[in-house]
Specification:
With 356 residues, the chain is of the alpha/beta class. It is 40% helix and 18% strand. It is built from twelve helices and 13 strands. The strands form two sheets. The protein has an eight-stranded parallel β-barrel with strand order 1-2-3-4-7-8-9-13, surrounded by six helices. The chain has a two-stranded antiparallel ribbon with strand order 5-6. Strand 3, helix 3 and strand 4 form a beta-alpha-beta unit. Helix 3 packs across helix 4 and helix 4 runs parallel beside helix 5. The protein is globular.
Amino acid sequence: MSGNTEFLWYIPNDIRPGHRGDAAVDNHNSLDTLTSHARALEDHGWKGALIGTGWGRPDTFTVAASLAARTTTFEPLIAIRPGYWRPANFASAVATLDHLTGGRVRINIVSGKDNLAAYGDSEGDQAHRYGRTKEFMRLARRLWTEQEVTADGQHFGVTDSTVVPRIEVRGDRLHPKLYFGGASEAAEQVAATEADVQLFWGEPLAGVAERIDRLKTLSATLDRDLPPLEFGLRITTLVRDTTEQAWADAEAKVAEMAMSAGSSWNDHKQGLAVGQQRLLDLQSQGDVLDDNLYTAPGRFGGGGAGTTWLVGSAADVARSLRKYRDLGITHFVLSGTPYLSEIKRQGDQLLPLLRD
């Protein structure tokens, strides 16, 4: 499962301690603490980490730049929202950070609902929201790969715009990869034409296979003019030394969630996007799907990548992740809590099995 397969982690980037069962330590989001996570990722075999975004969280781009400056190989997957940025400002910021880090930047474009009024944004219906996202991604890519760009779109425009420093071409990497999520019809049309990597949450294998087939068909139907779309999985992985210990800990965590209504777990449940609803609907099929995909967390407050978990020993979880790899998943964004100790445990126990 090596070759072009990549393994990233997750840095929650949250003001409140205890995110998804994390250790509620002092200074949990200080630069020193976050740097310790990024350096542990470097030391334990990870490529980098997705850094979460949302109004009411620290600014993701600032956190990513700070961590990149304190590391040498860590690659931040920086979650951003088109409503926070104008495309040319965004393209310039990314190009600058990419230059300063020697090409370590990745971007996750987020189009889900957020507290728009709080940061002075407004958007219309779903068609408007994804139309804007599509235009944003297309224009950013042009600004990275062309000079003196002029564009007059429905949402954004630039005239004779050249972003500096220029993005350095590195092998087949023409610019930082654009990751994208979303399961609605409108989102999938954007992914099929504009994304470099489509990220899925933890659906059963059959659901992921169906979506990969649909996106490949859409890419052909919509005359995608980019390299083939790649696919990623963003999922919680609960790994312990034995299968029995993993399931005991998983059930204990869910029992804790039930007592607190999942108060620190459900940061993706506002507005119930199509992808989130798909995960919540899995509960009707049973508590455990496929071999070890645990759906109970979603019933007790789990949201986003915390809605379903892959549970088991390192061998159990590696076996399941290989099945996703066989479907065509090449980018894995994993996480478990406490985050720091799990970076080390899963880096040392799980990743070697996946590189075999």
